[in-house]
Design a protein that fits this description.
Layout: H1 2-15, H2 25-44, E1 54-55, E2 64-70, H3 78-87, E3 93-96, H4 98-103, H5 105-113, E4 117-120, H6 133-149, H7 167-173, E5 178-179, H8 189-192, H9 195-205, E6 211-215, H10 222-237, E7 241-243, H11 245-249
This protein binds zinc ion.
The site of zinc ion (ZN) has 5 residues, from loops.
């Protein structure tokens, strides 16, 4: 469906420049096509739910925030992250890829046993835009199946890789929202490698109903793992209790 929209844009851009534009007609065509494609690319990451149901934060009547971890589960870091969370007495949501979960279903079960939630982060972590309906469906449904196999019950939250989505993905998801986030400390290069700055950013930005995006499953994310205790304690000092996403939406 995204391809159809993109093709429509190209056709529109092609016919838009008037004949009297003369020799400027071609540069105008190319410029408009490029502009249209950039606009689509931007739209795919848009914060607002312009293309389908999107969750950035949740309206809550309690002082709670959702801690969410993307990617994995990886054998090297699942246990350390679970230990850190257990030490702080906190539960979270892990958006895992079907591929990694299928390789290590025991890690998925360990996450559930810790009282945490599992979510769907696609099968292969490809960008889910400009893809066929069949590919998108397979990415979502095969991951749902592995999640069910490791013991997930109830609704499965879905987060698209890189937060990117267009009409095609939403057609597959239906009413199920794309779960994004409103606090993303690692997106700022100057604080991503500094645990103290990372925690301070989260604590400062989080409000009741916030969804915090973190990555802690790869070697490169040591700063995030180091920041976890300070994030949890800082949020609590602010009166905000970190919970799994499902407790925000229920
Ligand atoms: Zn991811």
């Amino acid at each position: 469906m995204d391809v159809v929209v993109a093709a429509g844009l190209v056709v529109l851009a092609w016919w838009a420049p008037p004949r009297r534009a003369g020799r400027w007609r071609w540069p105008m065509r190319i410029g408009l096509v490029l502009l249209g494609l950039v606009a689509l690319w931007k739209l795919a990451s848009a914060r607002a739910g312009l293309v389908g149901p999107t969750l950035l934060r949740v309206d809550v009547d309690r002082p709670v925030v959702a801690l969410t971890f993307d990617d994995g589960p990886t054998p090297a870091y699942t246990k350390p992250v679970l230990d850190l969370l257990e030490a702080e007495g906190v539960r979270a949501t892990f958006f895992v890829t079907g591929q990694e979960l299928a390789g290590h279903p025991e890690l998925g079960r360990a996450i559930l046993e810790g009282g945490h939630e599992l979510g769907n982060h696609s099968w292969s972590h490809g960008r889910m835009i400009f893809r066929s309906a069949a590919w998108l469906t397979e990415e979502v449904e095969s991951t749902d199946r592995v999640l069910r196999d490791v013991g997930v019950t109830g609704p499965i939250p879905f987060r698209p890789p890189y937060g990117k989505r267009l009409w095609g993905l939403h057609a597959v998801l239906g009413e199920r929202p794309a779960v994004l986030w409103d606090v993303e400390p690692e997106s700022f290069a100057d604080i991503a490698s500094d645990p103290e700055a990372l925690a301070a950013h989260v604590v400062e930005r989080a409000q009741p109903g916030s969804i915090v995006l973190l990555h802690a499953m790869y070697a490169s994310r040591q700063a995030t793992r180091d920041a976890l205790p300070a994030i949890v304690r800082g949020l609590r000092r602010k009166g905000l209790e970190p919970v799994p996403l499902g407790e925000l939406t229920r």
